[in-house]
Amino acid sequence: MTVIASKNNPKVQRWAKLARHSRLRRDEGRALIEGPHLVAELLAAGLKPVAMLVSETGLGNREIAALLKGFDPIVLSDSAFGSVVDAETPPGIAAEIEIPSGTKGGPGDTVFLEGIQDPSNVGAILRSAAAFGAGRAVLDRGCADPWSPKTLRAGMGAHFRLAIQQVRSLEDHLAAFSGTLICTVPRDGVPLATAKFEHPLGWILGAEGQGISEAAGRHAKLKVTIPMAAGVESLNVAAAAAICLYETSRRAARS
């Protein structure tokens, strides 16, 4: 068994850059996923990695060994593997993957994300979208890279159950959407519990503080408000998204 031991190995350096630089991910159409859970989600979705990476320590892990069956993994020394992955505690297994094109949306609703820069929020929204039956996510370039390690970790495998597309501007995509576009507003909107929804829905979600832009808001046919206790101004955008997506999913299940 050959082990790549050096952090200066060209392949190791490229994987490290792939984990850290969104431009390289866009240029190559590749990303790096980390950890047994994400690798298992990838395989469960019927997708195959370009390369499977494992640390020397990871070779002794039963869960990781099961995931490696049928693959010829590239073994890295623990120090070389640690230089590649983003997680503070190296998970023992990683995989280079082709980023799905995301141009064809799956069944279900769509989430449109504008200017959400926190990768944890982006990942959490994608996780909720997948959990509550949305089929597609469209993000503008002001959002965190959906294929960064932090976003992938927060998404917990949702990336492999959604069609995800990052675009320069949402304008054309909002204009072309054939369903009902909805945005949330902190006050004076239709209360979420009484709002009437006609699927397919497109939820327009913006960064905390400024919300969605005026240009994006003009496309919304419906503005809803989530009732909150007195004195509370707003919710975290990922929490608001989860509430809205759950409500529409709950109603769809009852109809």
Notes on the protein architecture:
The chain has helices at residues 10-20, 22-28, 36-44, 62-67, 78-84, 119-131, 149-155, 171-176, 214-217, 237-254, and strands at residues 3-4, 30-34, 51-55, 74-76, 93-98, 110-114, 136-140, 163-167, 180-184, 190-191, 201-206, 222-225. The protein is 35% helix and 21% strand. The chain has 255 residues and is α/β, with parallel strands linked by helices. The model has no long low-confidence stretch (mean pLDDT 94). It is elongated, with a radius of gyration of 20 Å. β7 (136-140), α7 (149-155) and β8 (163-167) form a beta-alpha-beta unit. A 7-stranded parallel sheet has the order 8-7-6-11-9-12-10, with helices on one face. α1 (10-20) packs parallel to α5 and α6 (119-131) runs parallel beside α10 (237-254). The protein contains 10 helices and 12 strands. The relative contact order is 0.14.
